[in-house]
Fold these 3 entries.
Entry 1:
Amino acid sequence: MSRTLRLVLGDQLNPTHSWFKNLDASITYVFVECRGEGSYVPHHIQKLVGILQAMRNFSEQLKNKGHEVYYHKLLDSEEVELADILHTISSKLNATELQFMQPDELRVQQNLEELVNRGHSVSFVSSEHFISTKEEFTITFKGKKSFLMETFYRKLRKRTGILMEGDAPYGGKWNYDSQNRKKLPKNHLIPPPYLPSTNVEEVYADVKKAQLRTIGNLDDPRYYYWPTTTEQALAIFEQWLEHCFQFFGDFQDAMTLSDWALYHSRISFALNVKLLDPLIICQSAEAYYRSNDHIPLNAAEGFIRQILGWREFMRGVYWERMPAFGTENYFGHKAPLPSWFWNGKTKMKCLSHSIGQSLDHAYAHHIQRLMVTGNFMLLAGIDPDEVDLWYLSIYIDAFEWVEITNTRGMSQYADGGWIATKPYVASANYMKKMGDYCHNCFYNEKTKIDSDSCPFNSLYWNFFERHRELLSNNFRLGMVYRTFDKMSSESKVAIRARANYVLDNLEQL
């Protein structure tokens, strides 16, 4: 009997894929725990463990349904590259054809395509996961010099009918972002996040034995709390709908020292390994909103926009602009990343907390990523290559297709404006406005030029002065430059001196 191998990658754990609908004795589903995939960056230990545990769980589910499964564990061979391992497995099983779901990352696709040169018959099918297609994105922005998320978001709203009344947006507006920016009130009680529990001791031991370079913490592998099955992911989502959804709209941008999850759903990892279907999640959120009067529209639209809008948009940008996008460096930034980004040991409380939280939980919400860590990296002129590496390493939901587009585009403006209409930078005033990080910080958030002034303040103005030639014509930055030009010469000199001192002493902050 001719044998077909179907590879299931660690981020392709889609239980509803058409591959799995029918049993076929000539098909073997192959799972590969690959040293190369586990070491191309120093992944967070929780990320590696989560992916491998989810793969093992998914493979067992397929076996229980009667499918033929071949599982290659991390310690089964010393081979590093995915293509090499598949070549060996194919020979061992006398396979005549290799079938793949379309990978989400160009790097992986190129690795798999190498098998054609080794004489294998190779074919690709859709992962059947995303709401949009690469072709739809290309057609939408054909001939454009930049991409606008809002354009794509509205197109997908119309096509799917989500939060629509006929051809008009439900509630009369497309976007309620301006209503998503409230600070948490004093003494506000946030419900603790629902955390499932999985014993991952076996996977954890395998990662350690394989001597893969990892970062971050996993306190007790007997009680791993990220979802590794679709059932766990749905339980997290349903708990979130019931207890957190109503506050998500108001407080999705808020920051606090007292809680690591706030009102965020924490389903991004499950989505990105495809345990959850994004369209079903959006439809479920809409249905819950429409049937519960206490859920405000800014919460429903804000949540759906993150998935139907931003997530789909990022994937489109990735395939439209890679691989060139991965080398973009509009400002020519070359500074090395301070070593404290890997341990959180800085006197800047906002950064210390955001990084420390990321090391503890492999997670930080979008404002911590964009306006704390990303903001500092951009103002400090950190090399985008190092920024990419850090974000891809530290977050459980970071896969290149969604990480690099957010990093090079939204966060670092390294693409020169293909994604964002302006650089997202801010002074300490933003931190104070949106959270409690400035309280009892070593640095003074109110001053710019003193020895204990918050580094964000001088770096902010120095950034715009340093890059005036590239940014002064940006229509969204006119007020910034008008304010800067009204400053006295003495103030500008003092700000420049403080900023240069900060830039020269990043390691000591």
Entry 2:
Amino acid sequence: MKLLSVASEIFPLIKTGGLADVTGALPAALEKLGVQTRTVLPGYSQVLDKCPKAKLVAEFANIGGHAVSILGAKVAGLDLLIVKAPGLFERDGGPYADLNGADYGDNWRRFSVFAKAAAMIATGALKGYKPDVVHCHDWQAALTPAYLRFGTEPAPPSVMTIHNIAFQGQFAAQVFGELGLPASAWSFDGVEYYGSVGFLKGGLQAADAITTVSPTYAREIRNAEFGMGLEGLINARAGVVSGIVNGIDTDVWNPETDPALATGFATRTSARRSGNRKAVAKHFGLKPGDGLLVAIVTRLTWQKGMDLLAEAVDGIVANGASLAILGSGDKGLENALQQAAQRHPGRVAIQVGYDEPLAHLMQGGCDAILVPSRFEPCGLTQLCALRYGCVPIVARTGGLADTVIDANMAGLAAGIATGFHLGPLSARAIVEGVADAAAVKRDGKAWARMVKNGMTTDVTWQASAERYRNLFQDLIDRQAKA
């Protein structure tokens, strides 16, 4: 089976979040099942720098007013097709925003050209290559199914995966005339969305199947609280919507061989984690003693519940726990957490920014990790934590609910718990959740059982990759019978 994956980022070339981890790890898992993946990726400067041996495989004089080249490259086991359009993608800032953090004003053009190029590749623009199915990720790739549906060439079936429905790619109606779509696409059945152009909406409307990154999130987005205005469309297409939980790359996240850890340890035991705990405490200048050392590795945003954390810090410290925080985001939340660190020296510390090796060390050394998200489509942090013996304390939402077994009375009695679910999310619930974890930690035997349960949980891509392969095959079979 030949799969064309369309994504705006992929690890280890370019990453802003979990999307890159998924698109970077899933191809290897699918390959074991007989699925050959080629990934279409924008030619950002960061990508081109890491692909010096990329070769020209096609040229197009005009896609959306830009000359576009397609480069082929193989890096870190990934088979890449890079959409090179210097005026669109070779910039000093990030993939979506400039050095000041402001979204590029022409993102609609950048990712419409990207999606159009992907659709052309999907319909045979590269000599000798035509995929059996197309898998598109988030709004940046979402016009690809629309171009396939409204195009004139026979097209393979497409799958649209929602990693976070809050990010939709909504732009002014005036840009529609420059997208290269027929007039019929300006409709409820096309890309029109409340009088504007909706990239994600168009992809969800046009794709043959829709997936989200956890079963619970697939149910949640049918409601207004989580659907972000698209719940009507999701309900209308409920028959083609499914949730497939993410996995992690267990070669990258392997505590036995991870170079970021101060002391490696086997995934069958938590022995030797103490060396990493000491390294985390030293790095952050913390003195946690025997109290619970809690990690927070996240974007500092409202979605992630960081405003509630800022409110809960004093209560957490009063109960004897310490906090090591790594992340960046909303400046007000960064300041609030920095002030909390100043109030509690030696007990609370924050490093603003993102540091991948440090994130690994924190997972391998902290006792627990706190993930109080208001919504979380899947979440990868808690999966990494489970594998590294770091007990998750999570909101009961999305993939967090699907992947962490709550340490309630039944879970503890049965010896199956892997973490803690917070009650209805609030600052008080966070304080109580951390206190509950600390209480179980004082019962060394119960805590050791939880840690072991987490470390032996299957967080690989194997089962999920099989579900994707079966979905792809079903779409191919249906199209063949049509």
Entry 3:
Amino acid sequence: MQQKKALVLGAGGFIGSHMVKKLKKEGFWVRGVDLKFPLFSETQADDFVIGDLRDPYLCKNIIDMKFDEVYQFAADMGGAGYIFTGENDADIMHNSATINLNILDASMRRNIKRIFYSSSACIYPQENQVDPDNPNCEESSAYPAHPDSEYGWEKLFSERLFLSYGKNYGMEPRIARYHNVFGPEGTWQGGKEKVPAAMCRKVAEAIKNNKNEIEIWGDGEQTRSFLYIDECLEGTCRLMRSDWTGPVNIGSDERIAINNLAKMAMAIAGQNFALKHIPGPQGVRGRNSDNRLISEKLNWRPSRPLKDGMTQTYQWIEKQVQAQK
């Protein structure tokens, strides 16, 4: 039996590097592509290409054979400190849209069928997410469209782009709307980190530097759900190998206020610091994954408790903080 081949775009990033590991365990031959190698561990890809996916010639060169599965994670993205300031909007929209246009065109020309696209919960209308205790993120609520960021608008455009290539060229896109994926080996400092990593870092740094408080952007009552990386990969592969296109939420439905997330990180560390609320980008007031559709279509839904994933993540980030001079 011929070995299956997979292409992972954005393989130097958090989700992409973990997906490479998963596919290798499943016996795939894997090519990874990114601007950089993974930061925290050696890539397990059989072939890793350093290159810029905004370059259409590079995309044609890396898609030089028929891949059984293509995973498109590459994007210009980050946490609230990057997406919601407004200072990076043009780069976010231009870079990510260009990558998706190039990848789809090159894949179509190689007659690649099955291609996964990682969209985002940021596509949902902002007016559906003003109540932190009752957000509406049902998949069908995406239209009329009104995302709260240009990042969300680009993701929504690219969903339609992938669906159009499916309709016009016989490709088989699979689209997931991720909800705040986190875990070890993810970005944990520098402004592009997500909230779980930021909270773990702040607690670990407070311990290291003998501080008695940590900072929270806004009042901390805004709510989110956070999905551990292992469950993200499981849901992604189930969708990829199903007969269903999506879009579908892949996220936890365990909603938590940011203040309580900070307290969870402190409890894991055995600490109790004061919370200092400061001005900062916050995004929508409430967001949570609606998992009715994924349960119906894939007979599966994320179920790992948030505290389990936070414990694993804190332990990893604590080591990074302690290693810093």
